[in-house]
Amino acid sequence: xxxxxxxxxxxxxxxxxxxxxxxxxxxxxxxxxxxxxxxxxxxxxxxxxxxxxxxxxxxxxxxxxxxxxxxxxxxxxxxxxxxxxxxxxxxxxxxxxxxxxxxxxxxxxxxxxxxxxxxxxxxxxxxxxxxxxxxxxxxxxxxxxxxxxxxxxxxxxxxxxxxxxxxxxxxxxxxxxxxxxxxxxxxxxxxxxxxxxxxxxxxxxxxxxxxxxxxxxxxxxxxxxxxxxxxxxxxxxxxxxxxxxxxxxxxxxxxxxxxxxxxxxxxxxxxxxxxxxxxxxxxxxxxxxxxxxxxxx
Length: 297
Prior knowledge:
single chain; mainly alpha; 6% strand
C-alpha cells in the first residue's frame, strides 16, 4: 500500500507529511542547540530566536539547489519552481542557506559564529534524518528494483519510466535517514564529551566529513538511479551531488588539519558554567543585565 503524502485536510487547508517532518526536524534541532548552548553559558532562547531565519534560508537554499539540479524539467515548468505544494530540496543548498543566515544572525547579535555552528551541527544531521522520511510519503528518491524484504512499494504513477515494471524498490530514504541518525548521535556525544584539544567549529567540521561520506554512499546508481539520467547534472560520469561530496570532504579534512596546526588561543574550546536565569530584582532595584547573548566574534 502506498503512503499518503497528505497528513490531513481542514477545509481549504492541506497539511503534507513532508512539511510537517521538515518543521519537526527543525524544532528538534533548535531544542538540541538550545540545550548545548545553555550548558556552555548561553541564554537558551537564543537558539529559538534564530530558528525561523535558519529554517526559511535553508528551505530557499535547498529549493534553489533542487531547481538547478533538475533544470531540464523546471525550465519547461517554471510555475512549479516555487509553490505551496512544492517538493524536492537539495540538502547542500539548505546547509549553505542556513549557514549564511546563521552568520548574519551571529554578526547582528555579536555571537561567535564557529561556536554556534557546533551547537547547530548535531541537530542539523538529526533534522536531515527526519526530513528525509518525507521522501517516503511522497514516493520519491527511491532506488532500483529489489526483492529484499524491506523493499518498499512505489505507486506506478511515481515510478521512473525505465523502472515501471518493478513492484518494490530500495528505500533509499530509509538508508540515508538511518545513517544520518547515527552521525547525529556521534556528533552529539562529541559535543558533550570532547574537551581536550578541541577548537570552536570542530563539531561542525566533523559534520562536514560525516555527511559527505553518507551522501557519496547514497548517490550510487543502485540507490539513486534518477541521478544518473540527468545529463545536465553529471560531471565526469558522476552525479553533481557525489562530486560535491568529494570536494566537501577534502575541504573540511584540510580545514581541520590546518586549524589544529595553526590555531590561535581564541579558537580553543573553553567550557563555561551552565546558564542560569538572572535573579529577580528586589523592589526598587534593577537586576544585572543578561549578557549571555553577546560573547563577541
